[in-house]
Amino acid sequence: MRQSEPGGGGLGEGVLTPVVDRAALLADAGLARDGAGRLRLDGVDLETLAGAVGTPVFVYGAAVIRRQYRAFDEALAGVPHRVHFAVKANGNLAVLALLRSLGAGADIVSAGELARCLAAGFPADRIVFSGVGKTGAELEAAAAAGLASINVESVEELDALGAVAERLGREVRVGIRFNPDVTTDTHPYISTGKYGIKFGVPADQAAEAIAVLARRPGLRLVTLAVHVGSQILDASPFRAGAARLVELLSQVRTAGIETVRSLDLGGGVGIRYGGELPLSPAAYAEAIVPVLAPAGLEVHLEPGRFLVGNAGVLLARVLYRKHSGGKDFLVLDAGMTELGRPSRYGAYHDIVPVAPPRGAETPFDVVGPVCETGDFLALERPLPDGIAPGHLLAILGAGAYGFVMGSTYNARPRPPEVLVDGGRWGLARRRETAEELMTGEDPDPVMTA
Questions:
Q1: Three-state secondary structure call for residue 176
Q2: What letter does residue 69 receive in the DSSP assignment?
Q3: Most CB atoms closer than 10 Å: which of 197, 249, 264, 414?
């Protein structure tokens, strides 16, 4: 059996089987087997839930989200801070409302996410708007809403926002996200802090950004931000990012700007998908607080995956079991349209039977129903040989970048989302219908010259 460690470099690594700490993964997810060996989430029997709602279905554990948020919040108790949830990780309204109730702010990257956060009850002044490609309409909407800050990622965007502020006749709170030129050991598609990629204002353009601020009086610089990447398990890149922030703050203050009130280190703290050793919030805080605290400013963070990744499972049923070309396949009713990370990044997600596992393990390719050879959830994955059509499987670590990255390819309606809390569950999003997929379409459009 070929072995591969999750995370790290090239595309394709991690799809195969790493050394897995199954007990830790189940604990991370709030999952446990009852006396009969059936898998439960916070006391809720997953087989019963799947029978009521159907499959595939995303299920999120509220207790895990609370645990993760409080761990981060408490680790940073020694400094003024604010935790903004990165909405791109999971935009479900029930998840957003839960995090808002815990005291979280929100980090958004689109007008659609802004609408979601406002619908979930986030005050506008606890929302920061990041993202490399904000449209003119998005800049106007964000400026009019009075957000905590609009974090620009180019000198050109900063100038465009200044024009918006003048047109609206109001002061706009702005942040500048700089590219810290910090290399991280993560997948290249989610490494966002290296020089020469699309994210952030290059540090050597800081003087140009300061010049824009000088000629755009409607902009008030309130934060400096960096983001070094995602799924990072080592504290050193965060420490380096924090040091870069302090250097930039000194440069800004030397230029006579004294309005900065916060330093934003972004997100990126990784989680356990297989056998990784995650960076604890305490170790994270130990690395960054001594660097940032002397500046005397509020520390802002934007975790996403860390707060919700392990809290979610994707439940799917086995449709068929087949043998072809010397390989065994399990064909599920979920695939790349529900969870795209395995096929897109080569990401590893642990898969466990919901019923008591039976039989010795044998390697399976776990695939979906989509008409693509690349539609898989796992390759050569050892699973109990007793798995048969109709059996329910739980795909772990699906709470972040799961539903939000899904698609309706092959005209597949999106699955429901369920929130579990205190032994009860509620439907947070119903299953989409085929008819809803056609909303807005016209088979006989009116033609114009």
A1: strand
A2: H
A3: 264
Where are the alpha helices (H) located in 17-173, listed in sequence order? 22-29, 46-53, 62-75, 93-102, 111-119, 136-145, 155-168
Residues 6+ apart with CB under 8 A from 326: none
Quick: pLDDT tens for 369-398. Answer: 999 999 999 999 999 999 999 999 999 999
* Pair 381, 68: CB distance under 8 Å: no
Output the six-digit token pair for 177: 């996200």
* Integer angstrom CA distances of residue 290 from 123, 247, 294, 296, 302: 30, 14, 7, 11, 19
Q: Which two tokens stand for residue 22?
A: 């199954």
User: What is residue 30's predicted lDDT score, i.e. its pLDDT?
Assistant: 98
Strand pairing partners for 152? 176
pLDDT at 13: 41
Mind listing the pLDDT tens digit for each residue in 278-322?
999 999 999 999 999 999 999 999 999 999 999 999 999 999 999
- A 10 A CB-CB count for 113 gives 22
Query: Which among 77, 360, 371, 447 is annotated as catalytic?
Result: 371
For 292, other C-beta atoms within 10 Å of its C-beta total: 23
Contact 425, 418 (CB under 8 A): yes
Contact 227, 188 (CB under 8 A): no
b/e sequence 116-133, b meaning 16+ C-beta within 10 Å: bbeebebeeebbbbbbee
210: left (phi over 0), alpha (psi -120 to 50) or beta: alpha
- Provide the token pair at 275: 């056998």
pLDDT band for position 15 (50/70/90)? low
- H or E stretch covering 342: helix 341-345
